[in-house]
Amino acid sequence: MCLGVPGKIKEIYTVEKTRMGKVDFDGVSLDVCLEAVSDAEIGDYVIVHAGFAISILSQDEAAETLKYLKEIDEINQQLLAED
């Protein structure tokens, strides 16, 4: 199973003609390729998989997705505590 995670674009720059960005994931910033989301701008939320932004999300969609990911993590933590 593959999982794309939403993050917020904080900076956009170019490396060897490749559109890149610093994307924030709840306080952790990573360099991400933005070539597939050419209309993305600073402040936009993007779904990132394997270092590549693959789609743009609204702020509401990103918040909802992050909420669900947090709930999944909490359930996993509960299950691990029961073992």
Write the SSE topology.
Elements: E1 5-15, E2 18-25, E3 28-33, E4 45-49, E5 52-57, H1 59-82
Antiparallel strand pairs: 1-2, 1-4, 2-3, 4-5
Highlighted features:
alpha+beta; 83 residues; elongated; SH3 type barrels
Summarize the structure.
By secondary structure, the protein is of the alpha+beta class.
Net shape: elongated
Number of separate structural domains: 1
Q: Indicate the CATH class.
A: Mainly Beta
Proportion of residues in helical segments:
25-40%
- Write down the CATH topology: SH3 type barrels
Mean pLDDT value: 93
Strand order of the largest sheet: 3-2-1-4-5
Low-pLDDT residue spans: none
Put simply, the count of helices is 1
Q: What is the string of SSEs from the N terminus onward?
A: EEEEEH
- Proportion of residues in β-strands: 35-45%
Structural class call reads alpha+beta
Distance between the termini: 24 Å
